[in-house]
Amino acid sequence: MSITIKDVEHVAKLARLELSNQENEQLTEQLNAILKYAEKLNELDTDHVEPTSHPMPLSNVMREDTARESLPLEKVLLNAPDEEDGQIRVPAVLE
């Protein structure tokens, strides 16, 4: 597979980029060089390699989520800057 100048012009149009003829040619060469390099991966024997989503093993480091009693309302309201009718009062965000 190779990229043509028409392909570059089409993508540039979709991206709303104005490229000169020299830039079109330069990008065509660069994209083809990238594709040529990527084709080298097809030479690798990957028959016995398991597909992965990440190169390193990942594990969840979060603690177990366990239900427990919440703080008493009076203690929570001690941290509130303002309180009204047992609820935390905050400044209005809508006019």
Automatic annotation (TrEMBL):
Enzyme class: ligase
Any matching Pfam family: GatC
Keywords per UniProt: ATP-binding, Coiled coil, Ligase, Nucleotide-binding, Protein biosynthesis
Reaction(s) catalysed by this chain's protein: L-aspartyl-tRNA(Asn) + L-glutamine + ATP + H2O = L-asparaginyl-tRNA(Asn) + L-glutamate + ADP + phosphate + 2 H(+); L-glutamyl-tRNA(Gln) + L-glutamine + ATP + H2O = L-glutaminyl-tRNA(Gln) + L-glutamate + ADP + phosphate + H(+)
EC number: 6.3.5.-
InterPro entries on file: Asp/Glu-ADT_sf_sub_c (IPR036113), GatC (IPR003837)
SUPFAM superfamilies: Glu-tRNAGln amidotransferase C subunit
Leader peptide range in chain numbering: none
MF terms in GO: ligase activity
KW Ligase (keyword) present: yes
Transmembrane segments: none
Coiled coil: 5-44
Domain of life where this protein originates: Bacteria
Family: Belongs to the GatC family.
HAMAP family (alphabetical): GatC
PANTHER family: GLUTAMYL-TRNA(GLN) AMIDOTRANSFERASE SUBUNIT C, MITOCHONDRIAL (PTHR15004:SF0)
Function (record text): Allows the formation of correctly charged Asn-tRNA(Asn) or Gln-tRNA(Gln) through the transamidation of misacylated Asp-tRNA(Asn) or Glu-tRNA(Gln) in organisms which lack either or both of asparaginyl-tRNA or glutaminyl-tRNA synthetases. The reaction takes place in the presence of glutamine and ATP through an activated phospho-Asp-tRNA(Asn) or phospho-Glu-tRNA(Gln).
Subunit structure: Heterotrimer of A, B and C subunits.
Protein name: Aspartyl/glutamyl-tRNA(Asn/Gln) amidotransferase subunit C
Naturally occurring in which organism (per UniProt): Paenibacillus konkukensis
GN (gene name): gatC
